[in-house]
Each structure stands twice: as C-alpha cells, then as structure tokens.
Write the structure tokens for this entry.
Amino acid sequence: MLDQFPTTATKTRRRLPNQRWQIYPQKIELAQNLAKATNLPSLLNQLLINRGIETLEEAQAFLNSESINLPSPLQEFPDLAVSLELLQTCITCKEKIAICGDYDADGMTSTALLLRSLRWLGAEVNYAIPSRMHEGYGINKRIVEEFYNEGVKLILTVDNGISAFEPIARAKELNLQVIVTDHHDIPQQLPPANAILNPKLLPESSIYRGVAGVGVAYILAISLAQQLGQANSGIIRPMLELFTLGTIADLAPLTGVNRRWVKRGLLQLPKSQLAGIQALIQVSGVGGRGLGIGERGHGGHGGQGGQDKGQGEITNSQFPNPKSIDAIAASPRVVQNPKSLKPEDIGFRLGPRINAIGRIGDPQIMIELLTTDDMGIALEKAMQCEQINQHRQQMCEQIEQEAIAIVETSHVTSLQEDRVLVVVQPNWHHGVIGIVASRLVERYGVPVFIGTYEDDKQIRGSARGIPEFHVFEALEYCQDLLGKFGGHKAAGGFSLPAENLVALRSRLVEFANQCLEIQHLKPLLKIDAEANLNQINQELYQQLHALEPCGIDNPNPVFWTANVQVIEQQTVGKGHIKLTVAQTIDQQQFKIKAIAWRWRDYFPLPQRIDIAYKLRENHFNGNTSIELELVGARVSSHSYAPFTSDTTLSKAAFEYNHRQYTCGIYQNGSLPELRIKNPNGKVLAIEQGKTVGLLGNNRQDAKEVDISQLHYDAIIQAALRALGTCDILPH
C-alpha cells in the first residue's frame, strides 16, 4: 500500500531486477594513502578497503599470502596429536580404517582425499556414504554396525559427525575408535569420539577457522604424512588439488589459509596428474578458456549465493620438518605451466558436475573418479558425471518453472504480507530442490522453504534465506512441528509430518514478520565503485588479478556505470541476454559487449539504464576481449528527478473513491506520459505504450507496478476520462 494508491504485487513481466543497490562509500583519501604503499591504483585500493583491509600490514598479508607465518596445526587443533597417534597405530598394526563421508562436493572430495592419502601411507582403508534419499546426512547406526561387522577398528568421519551423538555412542559401545573431522556448527552436546577436529572449536582469530570439511581432511592427511616422514610431492600435490576442488565447490570463505592454499591449487589443477581431475576438465570444457554462452551452471548455486591454487603446506618453522613441505609447495618445478584456473571454473563447471552426483546419482561414481589412476576408467566416470549433470539441469529447469507457476497463481499477491515463501509439491526430486530454492530467492527476494512429499505422511525440504533472515533460527522456531532439521544462517534442510504443513507455513510467516521489513524484500546487491566504460580494458582486468582468488568473503569486484544505452540485445542459450551497451564521454561513444545470465524475464531491456557488472574475459576465435557480466540494472540515473519536469500537454483534476487526485499528460523525452498524483504527493507515471508504470515520489525511489491490474486500470481510466483522451493507453 503506497499512500492511498491501490497496489498489487502481481506482474506479468518484470522490466528490471527487483534489487537493493548498496554502493560502498568511496574513501578516497584512505585509498590514496594505501596506493603509496601497495603501488596499486586508487581504484584497486578502494576494493581492498571494501573488503575490510585498511592498513598497510593487512594489505601486504592479503596481497602476498605466502608471507604469512602459519602456526602449526598441532598447536591450533587440540585433538590433532591424538588423531595422528590413532591413525599411526592402525597403519602400523594393519588394522582396518573406515571413512564415513558425505554426498556433497565437500564430503566426496574429503573422502577421496583421505582414501588416497591413507592408502599411500600404507593403511587398509575403505569408506561408506549414507544414502541421500533414504538415510539423509551424516553417519548413522546402520553404517556403524556394518563397519563393526567388517572388522573395522577405527572410524573416521569427514564433513559430518559433529552432531552424531547416538551413532558415535553406538560405535563406542562396540569398542570402535572414532575420529570426527567436520566443520559444521558445534552442538550443545559433543559426540563421545576419541578425537574431534573441527575449526569451529578454534578461536575466531585462528587462520584455520574458515576451512571446510576438505580443509580439515587436508590438514589431517598432510600432518600424518609429515609424522610418518612421507611428506613428498607424490602425496602433497594430489591432496592440494582435491582440497581446492572441495573448498571452492563448498563455498568456503577464500580468506585466511584457504586463500593461500587455493591460490596454489588453482595453478596446479590445469596440469593435474590425477586422472579423474584431467577427465573432469576435459568433459566440462574448462581447458583454460572462458565461459561460453549458456554454459553457466547452477549446481550448488555457485548460485545461488553463492554466487566469484597449486601446492599447499601445513606449517612454517613451528612444525617438524617444515622445509620439505614449503620447498615442495613453492618450488618453481611445481608450477611449470603458467595457466591457472579461476574459482568460477570450479564453481560453474567442475563443482556442479561433482555436486550433481551427490544430488541425483551414486556418490561411488565420484569416489572412483577421484581415486582411480586409470585414465580410461576416469573418462568413463567423468562422462557419467556429465550425463547426470545434464539430467540435473533439466530437472532443475522443470521444477523451477512448476514452482514459479504455483507462486504466480497462489502466493505472489501475499508475499509482502507473508515475507516468506513456502512451496511444497509431490514428485519433485529432493536432491535438486535446494537449487530451485536459491533461484526463487533470487526471483522474489524473500526466504524460500521448498519441499516435496516423500510419501503421503512425510515432507522433506530445503530452505534458503536472505541477509536479514536466519534460516536455522527459523527452523528452531518451528522445531515442535518438524522432524529432523539442520543448517546455518543462509540455508537449511528439514522434514516434517505432512499434517503439519499448514501450521509450519503459519509459523514461518510469524517468524518472518518479526525479523523482516518490507524494504528487506529485495535482493541485496553490493557494489564496489563507479566506473566509466572507457576505463574497462585489459589493463584494469589484469590489475584485478591482485585480488584473486575471489569467492566467498572475497567477492569478485562489482562496478556500476550510469545511464548507458542498450544498442543491441538478443536472447541466447537457456534464457540469457546478450547485449551491447554504450556510453558517450566527451562526445565520444564507448561500446562494450555484455551478458546477463538467466535474464529472459527482463527482455527487452529499456534503452537507457544504470548497470552493475563484473568483468569477464572472453576467448573466441583466438581473440581475447573484456566483457561485462551484468548482475544488476535499474532505471537510468538521468531520470533521477521528481515527477515535475518536462512539458505539460494537458492537466485535470478528478475524484476517485472519495479522494481528490490531479493528473496530466507530459512530454517525457519522445513519448507522452500520464501522471496521476494523490493528495500525499505520490505519483503514478505511465509512458505511452507501456504496461508497467512507476509509483513513488520520484523516479529514483519509485516502484514498478503492472498497470493492467484491476486496481490501477480503474484509476487510470478515471484520469483519462477527466483529461478527455485515451491516447496514453498501451497499444
């Protein structure tokens, strides 16, 4: 409701993304001071400031992560020494070790990493991964008892286990030793394991705090290799590559030690000696070239969110025999090929193919792919990944369209009141509904809880949030209505009896209305700085490499340019817009090509818009060019003025619903525009031929509304009668 103008949330087509733009304040003096020390241009230093880096020391540590003196993991992880002792005993005594992994990219790369490293070190080791569809996440009593029956002496969990009190208690009853390696949030009651390695148990200041499950596995594997005197390149290099894959695919923060190791790993991956990684790179088409039209995946929404590394070592001087690790890691022989992958190559190419297996396939395919040394087997498994990922994409597209149809039919008019979206349908695949949830968040700007019926009595679902909404706290708020649930601030999973669905929707609406305001119901777009198109060139793109690797907590820079002209546009691939934009500066026109992923709902774009974008390198026919990847657009800044300018063609006053309004037709550029003003100064403006109007005090803050809706149509007809014309109506 906007001050007595009838409103509706329904729109048949949205002209531009429904976003909140947050442009970082430009700290010019601080950027100039940093520039003197970093030898980077002020624009680059502004980007550092936006990432919380404001001192010379912080800048040097960020730009040269190799300069950081890493503390020994033995000093940081209290149970690491015990874990190494248990593993060494099992290896020496030839006792069976079993790994319990997880079915996402982090869990599968962690499992493969520990299988490879433990076998390299002489261990007798096998693994199990629970069924996503039938058992859900984490180690369970069935797996524990199967391990016991197989003669296993030590269970090693990866990327799970921190909340598995009962299964681990059962393992202890059976006299099994257990090491938990996990990175998820700490529960109130820790499991009774022999050792627990979890970075969430470390101080927030620890450089290891942000590692994912694969990071914990990497630390454990390399530490064990060092203790056994086998920390050579044959074990370190493959482990680092798997660490890099899992860290990026799991959307772990690319800060701290992750940034240091991932940076090395990205250099190593293009010339990996692992058959599985070579095969994945081949079938995914990464091969050192840029993303092509229609190739951007959404396997882990990385989305979304989402949404932007060769050798690694564990320690410096505090750790036994540190020189061998750093020497192997930093040796020029490690990086003979100067080509490097980027996190987006993993996030949008390799990661989705890995995640697709865990979502709708058999995780054993991925474990075999990442542990085989046979290129024939690797290519066979990689092709299976490719086919499964294509099927996953088709499923996502179908479920997304079905979900949108349900929302547009039944929910869209109540979204601003409910402030949360709950969609449940039968026959949707649980493995992909989380991706669809992320896309619905992007589309509607509200938290999304999406589910599917497992049978007549049970629902299983996934949730995705927005910055001001805490998904796990929302699930806790509804815990008496739920079965199992878990998650964190941005995402979660849950199950519930089908009979509780109505009550769950009501409870979530109640929670959402406690923490969300209307202004929160737009996706937040954080923008680093303004740039003109004449600044966008290869030199700027190369300078941005200083920030890499970019990803979570170190995002790819986002720039914006005001009042560009869209001079060419067409839809391509699976609903993308390919376009050319231009900006005139000092009577000279600068043009650049751009791509807008999944923007078919906004086609055609208005001729004049403000754009927000990332830079991307495009390789075509042997040529390399810099293009824009649009992430936002809004009404052009040339229109950021009150609805009071322009030539008046006619004016009138009228009464509608017992309220007095004024109206007029104005010459706004080349087209006439109808404007209707209410007693509080709000204006509804409609250009001739348009089906979408603007409603607000000025164009900058105005909201787009669909004037074909009954409420708007009635007041427009009243205004036109008062003016004695119908020429302003859409043609």
Summary: The chain has four domains: 20-25+525-637, 73-386, 419-520, 640-723. The longest strand covers residues 559-572.
